[in-house]
Amino acid sequence: MGYGLRVIGYGRHPWVCAAWNVLLVMALYTLSRLFFYFISPDLFPDMTGAHLWELLKGGMRFDLTAVLYLSAAYLLLTLLPLPAAWRENTVYQRVAKYLFLIPNLLGLAVNCIDMVYVRFTDRRTTITFFSEFENDHNLLSVFLQGATQYWYVTLFALLIMTALVLLFRSSGFSRNLSPVTHNPWYYYVRETLIFCVSAYFIVIGIRGGFGRYTRPITMSNALQYTNRPQETLLVLNTPFCLMRSTEGGTYVEPHYFTQEETATIMTPLHEAKGEGQKAKGKGYNVVVLILESFSEEYIGKYTPFLDSLLAQSVRWEYSFASGRKSIDAMPSVLSSIPMLIAPYVVTPYSTNAVSSIADCLRREGYSTAFFHGAPNGSMGFQAYARSAGFQKYYGMDEYPYAKRDYDGTWAIWDEEFLQFYAQTMSTMPEPFMTAVFTASSHHPFRVPARYEGVFAEGTHPIHRCVRYSDHALRQFFAYVQTQPWFSHTLFVLTADHTNQLSEPEYTNALGLYRVPIAFYCPGVLLADMRTDIVSQPDIMPSVLAFTGYEKPFFAFGEDILTQPKEHNFAVCYNHPVFQIVSDSLLVQFDGQEVTAVYNYRTDPRLQTPLPADEASEETVRYLKAYIQQYIHRMITNQLTYE
Q: Which of 27, 205, 293, 406 is 20 to 30 A from 556 via CA?
């Protein structure tokens, strides 16, 4: 009997009540999601019951983060191990209740309002709403008209908000749980442990996961569950989007030129090619290798196998990454969307529709897959791969020997995972397009135990890891060269970004972005060191040209493989300035004016700035048009060819 009373007593324990209230709000968000689908089935054509369930489950991740954010003050007051008399005080309880209800009622309200608004924007409302309408003074009247016109949404919002108020559970302590019945030390130890454990799991819930490989969940993670970007409307909730977009920042269009003028200077819209154009690699397989941290500085020093491969490839003397982080590489390399201002996948625009090499070639009958040996979901790669049109994703979950070959920090060791990559490709229908992102040449710069003492140290800890990853690359090519598909495959080699650097010509604003870019196709492409100025966004249009893709497409880069580059520039963002590299000059631009100019060929260490007027008008105009196109198309969700 006493045990039964004790169990019943826990029913009003603060932790139990807090969990109940959080789960209650999450249930109301799920109910809202179902209601949204019920009133807007035209937004989600071809929806199946199984896929709807997938979207609902995915949405719970974002609901949990939003509810924990909105309930943070309430959870702190409810779970702090203060004296029971304080925690049961009427005023204390009332304050805690209001700290929970007010933020969450507002969250549910704006989420319901967005059920109507998303029809006009095709995306959940973000912080950009406030800058877009900061000069409009009729929003209240518009809101009232909408509440009347869409009365059924208003009624639904009132119902779920009422349900939250009525079903909210206040906490308390029964007699057998209070410090009056037990030694006070028992009470405080118990409540402190509950608080610490709760805090740990709350942090996990807010981040969307926990571990070295997990970055805080962002809007782009919703793409992991969708078949098309528009389905993120069902996965996401508006409070989450408002909070995350506040962290990521929003863009303001600069209006250097009219849109018509901008298009004449620079356009990411690539028109269809004539049917008579012959491609060297029509129907060839495409394999893209993105090598973690393989800086240009390492070439010729720590990469003997890659050096031998580059000697048989088309490559460039000056080639650049778009960003300094791994999350910048996928959009840049595979979708020709550079990192400009902020990493694309953490901006409010990360749920925009995008295209990619995989998306374009899939329409031509290619089978496509993306490979990354880290835990699935790591770095948001799985989400981006799905949004970019890859049909399959292979991560740690798909790797059969994950426990044996996990490096203990990030991912499967490169040697084993590249073998898995090669063997899996051999089972895919041809033609195929695949990409792999390696992982071992990353902090904490370890190599497998069997290779301790095998690979020589360098001047930085990463150098030994680069030697190991280069060895893994050698084993990969040793295998693929035996496969029947090797002779008709284009291999693209690049790095995601630079890492630990030593030489002065690499530790400056130009060298920080220098990574190799090469195309290897034995028997078709002859070894060639070219002098064009190229960057990662040029990879997608080059691959499409090589494979004979004849439809229009969207890309910020240009074909650098089958013809001379029309605009011989590379653009990147080196906070807080934009940079454009021409055939001899590096020009830095703060958004308003040129702030620095260097001749990197005669001054590779960038020690002697030139007068600002040394930058040609053509260079500055192109950079301005590039920036304006980028920002305008981000804001207006125009990152595909329509």
A: 293
| Helix, strand, coil percent content, the chain, rounded in steps of 5 | 50, 10, 40
Tens of pLDDT along 119-163? 766 678 877 666 555 555 556 766 777 788 889 999 999 999 999
d(CA 374, CA 635): 32
**What is the per-residue pLDDT for 3?**
38
Residues 6+ apart with CB under 8 A from 134: none
With CA atoms as reference, report the closest residue to 512 among 575, 463, 449.
575
Sheet bearing 432-437, strands edge to edge: 392-394, 367-372, 432-437, 285-291, 489-495, 517-520, 314-320, 528-535
Given a contact cutoff of 8 angstroms between Cβ atoms, the answer to whether 437 and 497 are in contact is: no
CB 268 within 8 A of CB 541: no
Alpha-carbon distance 97 to 555, whole Å?
A: 51
What secondary structure, in 3-state letters, does 124-188 show? CCCCHHHHHCCCCCCHHHHHHHHHHHCHHHHHHHHHHHHHHHHHCCCCCCCHHHCCCCCCHHHHH
Instruction: Give residue for tokens 């009373």.
Output: 5
The SS3 of residue 486 is helix
Q: Is 419 exposed, middle or buried (0-12, 13-18, 19+ CB in 10 A)?
A: middle
Q: Which pLDDT value is given to residue 10?
A: 60
Strands (E), 178-337: 269-270, 285-291, 314-320
Report strand pairing: 367-372 vs 392-394.
parallel
Domains (ranges, CATH) in the chain? 2-248 (no CATH), 280-525+537-561 (3.40.720.10)
At 200-213, the pLDDT tens digits run: 888 888 887 665 55
Residue 263 main-chain phi, psi, to 5 deg: -65, -25
Alpha helix (H) ranges present in 286-325? 304-310
- Contact in structure between 325 and 539 (CB atoms under 8 Å): no
According to DSSP, the residues that pair with 517 across neighbouring strands are 494
State residue 535 phi and psi, 5-degree precision.
Answer: -150, 175
DSSP 47-87: --HHHHHHHHHHHHHHHHHHHHHHTHHHHHHHHS---HHHH
pLDDT digit string, tens, across residues 495-549: 999 999 999 999 899 999 999 999 999 989 999 999 999 999 999 999 999 999 9
CB neighbours of residue 72 within 10 Å: 14
Residue 313 phi/psi, 5-degree rounding, is: -120, 165
DSSP single-letter state for residue 514 = B
SS3 at position 443: coil
Sign for the CA dihedral angle at 133, 134, 137, 140 comes to: positive
Sign, CA dihedral 223-227-233-235, equals: negative
Buried (b) or exposed (e) across 555-592, using 16+ Cβ within 10 A?
A: bbbbbbbbeebebbbbbbbbeebbbbbbeebbbbbeee
Burial of 49 by CB count in 10 Å (0-12 exposed, 13-18 middle, 19+ buried)?
A: exposed
Which is more confidently placed, 30 or 182? Answer: 30
- Mean residue pLDDT of the chain comes to 89
Residue pair 130/201 in contact by the 8 Å Cβ criterion: no
**Nearest residue to 195 (alpha-carbon basis) of 24, 21, 9, 13:** 13
Tokens of 214: 């997990």
Highest-pLDDT range among 89-98, 183-192, 476-485, 632-641: 476-485
